[in-house]
Design goal:
Helix content: 10-25%
Strand content: 35-45%
Radius of gyration: 30 Å
Number of helices: 9
Distance between the termini: 33 Å
Number of strands: 45
Structural class: alpha+beta
Length: 794
């Protein structure tokens, strides 16, 4: 499932970590790593009894009240089974029959206890007929259970707050877990004009006296949470795509929107079958429901919010996500909620694969990178620390570690194996787990068997441990060898929130010569320091790591070719670059590293240094000049951006310094030509730094005494902007002269820039800029200014 447009407050518990520190050279403070909560005891009922088939007869004529009979066919697995405990919540049982005879039963809380007339023997079957009624329950979180929204009535099979999360018990008696599977039939009577849609295929329909009864059947076994129904003013939108029947239940007025929104459904099916194997279900089905917080992957009849089927492509990754669950979650289901990443993380990665298939590699990499950078910076803060994707606690089963970091792990598995082995291993593992459940360890072992590639190190590092890894080139040695060059690359690994160095990592190196020719080669690296040796046909000028994003490492990066004096906003590297003198086009690569830079022996001035740094590399020819812009930001929590720098050194920005070194191993020194603007306040931990006459090398932010002879802070220009809020035009006035203005967002990204005649006033066009909070930064010979402004958009 996926939830959108929904504010769900997670209860977060801050847990202390137990790991030891290596040093501040290698990883951020390990107190931010979070120990895993032990999982609850397993539900062992399926060890002794198997629910083979469930047949539900349901009357919706008196909604919100339900009247129903569930007939369960059960089979014993062991000897002398005296009875059964079924899950049923908020509904009252009227009668129970066992093989047609009345049976003794009782209800206690969410449990229905039934005593068999005679204990069952191994292999012996029994039919239980259970009559019940009542007002069904919606989950306390607002997500999951039964919804009565006239003229719609439907269920969502998972409850975010429910324990367990599986919520089939909201409308029928079951073993409500991820392990027990059975086939299903539903006979649902509703008002004419509001036909029911369920799992499987329609067997019959009877209409009389203003009522309609529909019989649906699914032969493929599913867990209770994937069983479903939806009634409403539906007509069927039917197609056959790639030989697969498709049926979408929608109001008649929505059918044109269905056609447009699902226009890439053929590509989605082709993509997922190519990566994951055959579609093993009788149909692809969706029911549009008036729910505005996402969708639920009920097998063959996905409940999806009606507002997402709006005739545009804006929500196509939502329906693609749910479709992919027919492999991840429906076909192979996580054994426990603690391994929900096997369902949801892979469904998010399926969105990325769908994007790649339809829109190409660049769009794919953008989606992967954006997801990862969000996880890297924010998820440990919102969910109480760095966590592994396996073993998540109950309150964040449906959180970002599961969904978004789960997708990160899936992508990196592809990077470890390569596309061919990845496809082979995933397909074989899913075939081997068809209509079954698995744990992360099961998944590891099946992949290892299918690929012949020992994935123990990968799962230990990426699945069972919190945090992230980072690799950088520490130095190189190049030796000519005839017409070739032998290059030794010395690699340093650092960690962010992880307990140990990663092992057996297939790292791609990009070698670039003076003519910008490239060779990509891969070597396996492990531990804190590694050496990789390559033979190249040319002399490399640059050696870069992971430029093709086969792995997600703890950094963001961007390459640009500067061809004119326009500001280039390298958002993923959290920096902007402007060429002020440009004799020729210039290749620039910027990297924003989410790890603390080296300090041991490299910090003679004793600066307190933040937990991140930038690298700028490129062809900077004679005659080139330019500047770069970054923001320092200590407003967050834990180790978000520069939060720790201010937490340990107070809120004052007066002693913030821009530090620089030309390459690793050299001492950090204050950069000689920069200035900072503390913007609105000198104590809000947020400001702007412009790097004048930018040079290749490494940059970071520190706090300490200035030893530079330059004026690190220029005089502040007082300025105003009207109107504020503004829509399309702004009049900017300052008490001193200025000749350049930058419009930047609150993340520090440059959105627009203006070069102006020197003066004290300018009219700026901002038409087309999205609504939101921004800063106008003014630059002039006498100082710099800043004005906060809100744009309303168009």
């Amino acid at each position: 499932m996926r939830y959108v447009l929904f504010l769900f407050v997670l209860s977060l518990t801050a847990l202390s970590a137990q790991q030891m520190l290596h040093s501040d050279e290698w990883r951020s403070d390990s107190r931010k790593s979070t120990a895993q909560t032990p999982p609850p005891p397993p539900d062992t009922r399926s060890d002794s009894l198997d629910i083979v088939h469930t047949d539900i007869t349901l009357s919706l004529l008196s909604v919100p009240q339900l009247q129903a009979t569930a007939v369960l066919t059960i089979a014993a697995k062991v000897a002398n089974v005296p009875g059964i405990r079924l899950d049923l919540e908020a509904l009252t049982v009227d009668a129970v029959k066992a093989n047609g005879s009345p049976a003794t039963f009782s209800q206690s809380g969410n449990s229905l206890l039934i005593t068999f007339p005679v204990p069952l023997s191994p292999g012996q079957t029994m039919t239980l007929s259970i009559d019940y009624h009542g007002l069904p329950k919606q989950d306390d979180s607002g997500w999951g259970g039964i919804y009565n929204q006239t003229p719609y009535h439907y269920n969502l099979g998972v409850g975010f707050a429910a324990d367990p999360h599986s919520f089939g018990r909201a409308w029928f008696p079951c073993f409500d877990n991820f392990v027990e599977r059975c086939s299903f039939e539903c006979h649902i009577t509703s008002l004419s004009g509001r036909p029911a849609y369920c799992n499987g295929t329609l067997q019959s329909e009877t209409t009389q006296n203003g009522q309609v009864t529909r019989h649906w059947k699914l032969d493929e076994p599913i867990p209770s949470y994937l069983a479903c129904y939806a009634t409403g003013p539906y007509v069927s939108w039917k197609r056959t795509i790639n030989g697969i029947p498709v049926e979408i239940a929608a109001a008649a007025v929505d059918t044109n929107k269905v056609r447009a929104t699902f226009q890439h459904l053929p590509q989605a099916l082709q993509c997922f079958q190519a990566w994951y194997g055959p579609f093993n279900w009788p149909k692809v089905g969706y029911s549009l429901v008036p729910f505005n917080a996402g969708a639920m992957e009920h097998a063959t009849n996905i409940a999806i919010m009606r507002s997402a089927i709006d005739g545009t492509l804006g929500f196509e990754t939502l329906w693609a996500h749910e479709l992919s669950h027919h492999w991840w979650g429906d076909l192979a289901t996580c054994t426990t909620a603690e391994d929900m990443w096997l369902n949801e993380g892979w469904a998010v990665y399926s969105e990325h694969l769908f994007t790649e298939f339809v829109y190409g590699k660049t769009a794919f990499r953008d989606a992967v990178r954006d997801n990862f950078l969000n996880v890297l910076q924010n998820t440990h803060v919102s969910e109480g620390g760095y966590r592994a994707v396996s073993g998540v606690p109950h309150d964040i089963t449906y959180g970002d570690h599961v969904y978004k970091k789960g997708a990160v792990v899936a992508h990196n598995l592809r990077g470890y194996l390569g596309d061919t082995l990845f496809q082979k291993g995933i397909t074989a593992a899913l075939v081997n787990t068809s209509f079954d459940d698995w744990s992360s360890a099961d998944f590891r072992d099946k992949l290892t068997a299918a690929t012949g590639h020992d994935l123990t190190p990968f799962f230990e590092d990426w699945v069972f441990s919190p945090g992230f890894t980072h690799f950088s080139v520490d130095s190189t040695q190049i030796v000519p060898n005839g017409g070739e060059f032998v290059v030794q690359v010395f690699v340093k690994q650092k960690l962010r929130g992880a307990p140990h160095f990663y092992q057996q990592v297939p790292l791609e190196f990009t070698f670039v010569n003076a003519a910008h020719q490239r060779v990509n080669l891969t070597a396996t690296v492990s531990g804190e320091q590694s050496t990789a040796t390559f033979t190249l046909p040319f002399l490399p000028k640059f050696v870069w790591i992971n430029t093709n994003l086969h792995l997600t490492l703890a950094r963001g990066d961007k390459e640009v070719v500067l061809k004119n004096a326009t500001t280039q906003n390298l958002t993923t590297a959290r920096i902007s670059i402007t060429a002020t003198a440009l004799p020729d086009s210039v290749l620039v690569r910027a990297e924003h590293h989410f790890v603390r830079p080296d300090t041991a022996g490299c910090n003679p001035q004793g600066y307190k240094i933040t937990d991140r740094y930038w690298t700028i590399e490129g062809d900077f020819p004679v005659g080139f000049d330019g500047n770069a812009a970054i923001f320092y930001d200590g407003r967050g929590q834990l180790d978000q951006l520069d939060a720790e720098l201010f937490a340990q050194n107070g809120s004052s920005e007066d002693d913030v310094r821009l530090l620089y070194r030309a390459k690793p191993g050299l001492a950090w020194q204050e950069y000689p030509t920069y200035f900072k603007n503390k913007l609105a306040s000198s104590t809000d931990k947020y400001g702007f730094i412009r790097i004048d006459h930018v040079q290749p090398g490494q940059y970071t932010i520190g706090k300490g005494s200035s030893v530079a002879t330059h004026e690190a802070e220029r005089r502040l220009l007082m300025a105003t902007a009207t109107p504020n809020p503004a829509r399309s035009e702004i009049r900017l006035r300052a008490e001193g002269k200025f000749d350049k203005v930058l419009l930047v967002n609150v993340e520090g990204g440059s959105v627009r820039d203006w070069k102006l005649p020197l003066g004290q006033q300018a009219d700026l066009q901002v038409e087309g800029v999205a609504a939101g909070q921004y800063w106008l930064l003014l630059f002039g010979p006498s100082g710099t200014g800043a004005v906060s402004i809100f744009l309303t958009g168009q």
